[in-house]
């Protein structure tokens, strides 16, 4: 795979985007080692842009850099995650409320298109595509608030917590319910109903965060890191 054909970004930016997607999608697992030379060879770039991208990802909290073992995907910290989810719940509820006022017609149409893409992914049982579309939906949703300070705060917390979702398997029934909630959010925004949009996203996030935290606790018990009661 080469990224030379992508001229709109620097090679460092392109490597950063590639590695970030691999981490957030779960392709790179927590504690997994990142080998600079292997990444450079895979993407057709020198070591320099890979090193630059790794430093940025470490600053984002997605990677850890240790002097003797190099870069590794940051482990999932359940204690920190609970706090992050609590803050994300409040910020994303606020951003959705603001999006109901500020979203452009084009943004609403794109949100609607992503819902339809997720419908198709569910039918095709394509969980990878569903996960990607779901992430794009929520990123566009908070960016549609057009409140840049708020967006920056959410994106920082998003990067530090999104890879936690790799610990549980998607339930088809839950996917259907979740996408109906997405559809209702889009309709509420189209109607400029701030309260309804905020309530739906809050309920969805509370449920989703609880599922992830429970899955993480079970995973830790199965690994013997936490004694079962």
From TrEMBL:
Every HTH gntR-type domain range: 9-76
Pfam short name (any one): GntR
InterPro entries: GntR_C (IPR011711), TF_FadR/GntR_C (IPR008920), Tscrpt_reg_HTH_GntR (IPR000524), WH-like_DNA-bd_sf (IPR036388), WH_DNA-bd_sf (IPR036390)
Gene Ontology molecular function: DNA binding; DNA-binding transcription factor activity
Domain of life: Bacteria
CDD domains hit by this protein: WHTH_GntR
Keyword Transferase: no
Keyword entries, A-Z: DNA-binding, Transcription, Transcription regulation
KW DNA-binding (keyword) present: yes
Record-linked PANTHER family: GLUCONATE OPERON TRANSCRIPTIONAL REPRESSOR, TRANSCRIPTIONAL REGULATOR, GNTR FAMILY
The protein, known as: GntR family transcriptional regulator
Organism: Paenibacillus thalictri
